[in-house]
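Table 4 source record.
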Amino acid sequence: MKPSTLVLVRHGQSEWNAKNLFTGWKDPDLTEVGVAEAHKAGQSLKAEGRVFDLAFTSVLVRAQHTLDIMLRELGQTDIEIIRDQALNERDYGSLSGLNKDDARAKWGEDQVHIWRRSFDVPPPDGESLKDTAERTLPYYDARIIPELKAGKSILVAAHGNSLRSLVMRLDNLSPEQILKVEIATGVPIVYEIDASGNVSSKRVLE
């Protein structure tokens, strides 16, 4: 295996992030702030001279829009982009579209906290972080790792919880540890992958 690079970027701020709504598989676009975050992410990667062979994203517009902006900043709009719902955000089920404060008023603060911050307790009709990892990690193993093993540099634009699933694997974190990890919007996380397939370094481009 050749050395390779994997860069993970959570989409920029979405319209529903700004309104404090549970989003999940709903499909709002970026705010002006989110667009600016995506431009900054692309500029940060360009400043490092990053060149990508392939990009992956979800089927949701906020992640795709973020990726498109980054690739324009990089001058790399001609690379192949693979879109798959395996990289979608966690499905919040019955919480989707609700204001988080309204959800607390309806179900109670303790219950909403459990749904948001436990590893394996899903909200009604939705997914837990464990459920999200159970679709995201097999996809990573089947589609992304082979490209890394071929020595390619990969850019992934996705979502807070699908990326937390990947970070849990890459950083060798336990389910308890990953619950404390927050993925900032529009901030690239750069992993260098060594010839053995292990993470040799990690940098967050604040």
